[in-house]
Amino acid sequence: MVRFENVGLRYGLGYEILKDVNFHIAPRSFQFMTGPSGSGKTSLLKMILQQLKPTRGKVTLFKRDSKDIGKDELAGLRRRIGIIFQDFHLLDHLTIYENVALPLRVQGKEENTYRNEVIELLRWVGLGERMHAPPVILSGGEKQRAAIARALIVRPELLLADEPTGNVDPALAQRLLRLFVELNKLGTTIILATHDFSLMDQYDAPRIVLAEGQVHVFE
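Request: output the structure for the sequence above.
Response:
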């Protein structure tokens, strides 16, 4: 599903923040990604999403070389990907319910086909009583849970999650991890970036470790 071959990445004329990166992600797999702040985790996820292009090397997504993916095809590929980044990207003029349902509306689905599913998911992440609230009055942890629900509602083939439990308490972090695990069992490939080793210790999954520009995979 994802393959990096001898990938290097630098910003401008600076030094390479990632160098000689080689790894692959198999379909239906679950991978943790970890490493110190500034090690390149978010940059690596953005290369998978095709928001960043490698300075050198080859990135393959859904068996397509990123260099050969045009704008029209890229839009279709991204609809197969769920994204949970730390900046949330919630729309302030919509309620939490409307934010979570937005990907389904964009797909042209009628509300009566997804309303109960959106409500159930919001209740599961602890936002059942906040679904009609605008994002501006929510806490950081609540916004994070809303962003998680929005990414999961489309049941993506590939889920990229950047610190999805960073602003929630340990009990909710464990609950969200169980949700990701169940989604993986249904067939979604998951890459979960986290600093939380206690969270990673709760589930036996390979770890992609970034350090000093290098990537190491521990099965």
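The chain is about 35% helix and 25% strand.
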